[in-house]
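Changelog-adjacent note: as of this version, every example in the card shows the full chain rather than a window. The one below runs 163 residues end to end.
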Amino acid sequence: MSPQPQPAPVPYMERTRNYYRALGYEDDYVWAHFEDAPFARPAKPLAAMNVALVSTAGPGDRSNRDARGRKQVWSCDAAAPPASLDTDLAWDREATHMDDRETFLPIEAMRKAAAGGIIARLARRFHGAPTDYSHRKTMEVDAPEILRRLREDGADAALLVAI
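Full-length structure tokens:
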């Protein structure tokens, strides 16, 4: 029996450009990029780390919105995650759906990684990073707030799960 062909990667950037063009935007979205990535060599092995999850999905009840409806950084107890998540963004609807929490917030996979000794433990909370299409707000407001919360939780590393 011959192996099954692997599906082609999702052309996410092209789909996003086409989506915004269809909405009438004339200028393509400018993707964030950095000349120097702020990564550092871990100080200890992964098996000794407290690892946190950070997702770009929001809570299904939209409780991460302020009075004007703007998205905010949010956090939730990893022991009691919401059943489903929410987003205003485009994603590959043929491959998954927002009720498939593990796609956007792989808590069960991380619990198995902890049980198997791959990581020391999953941090007590996970965090949500708003997707507002504002590089300035992400860099000056949201990222520092998420970092503060990660440090508060004693996280050694964070797994970023983007939609």
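Structural remarks: The two ends are 35 Å apart (CA to CA).
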